[in-house]
Amino acid sequence: MKPHDAPLVKGYALACVIIFALLWITGFQGNAIVRAGFIPARFGSEIIVPPGTMVPFFLTPLTSAFLHGGVLHIVFNIIVLLFIGRQLEAPLGAKAMAVLLLAGAYAGAFAQFLADPQSAVPMIGASGAISAVIAVFALGQVLLAALRGRMVGVIARMPVQPAPPSMVQAAQQAGLDPAKLRVVDTLDEGFTGDWSGIQPDSLVVPLRWATLPAAALTAQFARRKAIADSGAHRRGVLGAIAWNTAGFGAVLALTGASPATAAGMVTLAAGMTLWP
Length: 276
Hints:
The structure is a single chain. By secondary structure, the protein is mostly helical. The protein has 2 domains: 7-148, Rhomboid-like (Rhomboid-like fold, Up-down Bundle), CATH 1.20.1540.10; 152-230, Zincin-like, CATH 3.30.2010. The chain has helices at residues 7-26, 29-36, 60-63, 71-92, 94-115, 127-147, 165-173, 214-230, 232-255, 262-274, and strands at 160-161, 181-184, 194-196, 202-206. A 4-stranded mixed sheet has the order 1-2-4-3, with no helix packed on it. A hairpin with a 5-residue loop joins β3 (194-196) and β4. The radius of gyration is 25 Å and the shape is elongated.
């Protein structure tokens, strides 16, 4: 199956859009949220509701996954679902994907229940199901990276090697203090060395650089020294922090999600996934 096929994910997304549009047009959206949304306080006792049929409590984690409270709510969820869900359904298949979405919906409802068992506020949206998709997708990417030897994030755990004499000499010629070198032995050819931390105090470099010609090695150190001296590294790190903070604020403002609830945290995580 190719990612653009993904019949289950696309069907689920289409169903959410159709249900949202019909409820919006007919004016039954609020009524449907109360009767089919997941309300933790309904567990063990029926809360006072307007006359009419209520969806059985044990089914509301499922029915709530098809309901959304506003345009931005459904737009964020559908974009994340289509963006990641299609990539995941291709290797898993439709049946496994259905189990994953169902498990995610119930897990999200259970997390909300644990957070506030007495809450009478309906939980709605595909965020629970989507969070399961994101978790499995992220886990798959990490495992894939591990199998390919691309987990550069574990470099901090690698034993630091003494800097070979060729590196020490090249660093001195580039005007770089050799004491700042942190040499690690990694097979990851994509790792080309970089400063660590906000302040460029330690330069982490791969041991294989020791095999480079002296001129090329000196040039590598000279470039990284220039980056540190110019403040580009520090500005880049601080800029990334500021950018992600701005993204967090934008998702908060656009979705109205609250970090105090499980559903809000899932919505924020989904929104930050889309932040470039």
